[in-house]
Each structure stands twice: as C-alpha cells, then as structure tokens.
Amino acid sequence: MRGLVMELETRYGAVRPGGRTARVRAAVLQAAGDALVEHGFDRLDLADVARRAEVGKTTVYRRWSTTTGLVADLLVDMAEQSTPRTDTGSLDEDLRANARLVVATLTDPRQGALFKAVIAAATCDERTAEALHRFYATRIEEWAGCVRAAIARGEVPGGTDAHEVIRAVSAPLYYRFLASGDPLDETVADRAAAGAATAARAGVYTV
C-alpha cells in the first residue's frame, strides 16, 4: 500500500505535509469528498471546496491546481486509510474477509457515494482513471498475498493467478453496486468469496 501512496504522490505532486499544512490538506480532502458525494465530479469546484474547508482559495489552487489533481490526492488519502488484508491461515476466511470489507465500504453512506463519484469521474477523465486504476491495482496486489499463501499451503493449485482470484471476489459485488442495484450484504459477500475459493481450488484460475 505504501508503494501506491508514494507513486501517486510522485506522479500527481500530492506530497504529504506535516503540521498545520497537514491539517489544511485533511480539511480540503474532507471538503472535496463532501462535494463529490453531494454533487458529483462534474460540479466539483475548487473555490467551493476552499469555502467548505474554510481555507483560502489561493491555497487550494496553488496546491492542487485542478479538480483532477484534487481527486488524485483524495485517492492517495483513501489508500492511506485502507484496511490492510487479513491473514487467517485459510483461503476461505481470507476471501470472506475481503468480500465483507468490500461490501462494508460500498454500503457505507459516505464511502459508497464517494466511490461512485470517483468511478464516474474516471469514466470521463483520463487522469482520474489512471489514479483509480492504480489504487485498485495495488489493493488487488495486497489481497493477492492471501492467495499466494494458499498456494504455498497447497490449498489451491500451483500456477493459480492470485490477482484473478481477488478480482473474482469483488466483481459480482461491484456489479450489484454499479449496475444491477441488487442488495449488498454479508450473505452476498460470503457467497462471492465462496465461489471464488471453489473455482480457485478447481483450477479455474491457473495459468
């Protein structure tokens, strides 16, 4: 996860400050998240964010420059706050924890709305899309560790694509979240995890 944070900071100039500057950043990112949840990316405005954060417009324009830069820094902040993967010693339990974390995030009133806004922004802005892709690529890589551990324990065949197993867990959950609108709960999460684990053990994801 730290690798993602450092890469995004380098790419988008989102260097994490300390002291009072850190408090300003936190206030601005909170305000940006609020604005995205309320109005979406197309109505995100740096002056409005500055007003919400109670900081000078010059500060916001100088540090973030554009709304896409601000969203990229927001993704850095989301990465910093992401829950690390579990390590239970069981693939089924690890994948279940992953699926439940995804569901908890997507069904959270603020986090779910924020992810929808960022995903929508990524569909029409290349810079935001790149930042979002890197965010998810790193989250998948982090959780892929539980599949590699399962390979080492002999739970799944050697040559299993760990990334594909993790994608198989979250894909049906994001489909419900973004497309079908069907309910998302722990039962759905557990079913997605069990399906991915069963397929992995059957060799579906071997390469």
UniProtKB/TrEMBL annotation:
Q: Does the keyword Zinc apply?
A: no
InterPro entries, sorted: Homeodomain-like_sf, HTH-type_TetR-like_transc_reg, HTH_TetR, Tet_transcr_reg_TetR-rel_C_sf, TetR_C
Domain named HTH tetR-type: which ranges?
A: 22-82
The protein's matches in PANTHER family, at most eight in alphabetical order, are given as: HTH-TYPE TRANSCRIPTIONAL REGULATOR RUTR (PTHR30055), TETR-FAMILY TRANSCRIPTIONAL REGULATOR (PTHR30055:SF148)
One Pfam family, short name: TetR_C_11
Q: Which SUPFAM superfamilies match?
A: Homeodomain-like, Tetracyclin repressor-like, C-terminal domain
Name of the protein described by the UniProt record: AcrR family transcriptional regulator
Q: Which UniProt keywords apply?
A: DNA-binding, Transcription, Transcription regulation
Query: Taxonomically, which superkingdom?
Result: Bacteria
DNA-binding residue intervals: 45-64
